[in-house]
């Protein structure tokens, strides 16, 4: 019989009654959700429904106005700014629509940056594995400006994976890419969940992108109003239409 460790039973990220207000605006209005370890979840919703706010709160970039966010069982709201930064650096990987690579650094330096910032050394075997996975072995000495958009995003994914984070948050990572390049990026996120058991949270407007996930959460007016499991693009579109 397999014995589950306590660690394995704790959700990767757990939100409990999370609210986030900006003045009179309730960007998040009592959101509770537990993201299982190794799961791939997409978050969709109309413009202004709270997706970015959700991502910022769930990843510890921002503190909620009310409720709690736990990352790996740690209550993020109780941490000092410095500890919250450290927790993010050690446990979370981020991928953004605009890639956010450092222009003056080459691909390898960009990928290694989170380790350097955290004062950690490289594991050459893992660097090789990550670089091979994203298909950039022959581009390590190139600057971001010498890469296509898809290659830049693949470098950004490698940078997100280099610390072996427990959770990867991706905010519209395919928003600036053509469909075939977008597919490569989504496959990498899928592999992060399937091959290395990372928890992936993807914010997207795109039903085709959302269909790569195990389940899709729908946000409306700061609340989770629906969940679709085993999504297909058609099912996501139909559910989206009913929001
Ligand atoms: N820093 C801020 N100050 C004031 N209001 C904010 C701030 N950030 C977000 N909001 C408001 O909170 C609500 C949710 O915004 P949020 O950016 O989370 O939505 P979103 O679903 O990500 O939108 P989009 O798809 O357009 O990016 C909106 O009404 C927005 O105007």
TrEMBL record:
Q: Which GO terms describe its cellular component?
A: membrane protein complex; plasma membrane
Pfam hit, one: ABC_tran
**Record key words, sorted:** ATP-binding, Nucleotide-binding, Transport
ABC transporter domain boundaries: 13-238
Question: Where along the sequence do coiled-coil regions lie?
Answer: none
For this UniProt entry, which segments traverse the membrane? none
Task: Read off the SMART domains from this record.
Answer: AAA
Under CDD domains, the record lists: ABC_MJ0796_LolCDE_FtsE
**ATP-binding as a keyword?**
yes
Gene Ontology terms for molecular function: ATP binding; ATP hydrolysis activity; transmembrane transporter activity
Write the protein's name. Answer: ABC transporter ATP-binding protein
């Amino acid at each position: 019989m397999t014995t589950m460790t306590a660690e394995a039973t704790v959700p990767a990220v757990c939100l409990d009654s999370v609210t986030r207000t900006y003045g009179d605006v309730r960007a998040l209005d009592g959101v509770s959700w537990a993201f299982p370890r190794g799961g791939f979840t997409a978050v969709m919703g109309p413009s202004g429904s709270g997706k970015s706010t959700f991502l910022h709160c769930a990843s510890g970039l921002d503190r909620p106005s009310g409720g709690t966010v736990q990352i790996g069982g740690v209550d993020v709201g109780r941490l000092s700014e410095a500890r919250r930064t450290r927790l993010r650096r050690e446990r979370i990987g981020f991928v953004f629509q605009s890639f956010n690579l450092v222009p003056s650094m080459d691909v390898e330096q960009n990928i290694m940056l989170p380790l350097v910032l955290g004062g950690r050394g490289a594991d050459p075997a893992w660097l090789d594995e990550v670089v091979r996975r994203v298909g950039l072995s022959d581009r390590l000495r190139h600057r971001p400006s010498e890469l296509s958009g898809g290659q830049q995003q693949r470098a950004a994914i490698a940078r997100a994976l280099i610390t072996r984070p427990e959770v990867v948050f991706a905010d519209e990572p395919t928003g600036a890419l053509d469909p075939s390049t977008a597919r490569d990026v989504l496959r990498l996120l899928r592999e992060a969940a399937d091959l290395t058991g990372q928890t992936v949270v993807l914010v997207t407007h795109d039903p085709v992108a959302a269909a790569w996930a195990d389940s899709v959460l729908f946000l409306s007016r700061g609340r989770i109003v629906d969940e679709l499991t085993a999504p297909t693009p058609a099912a996501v579109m139909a559910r989206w239409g009913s929001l």
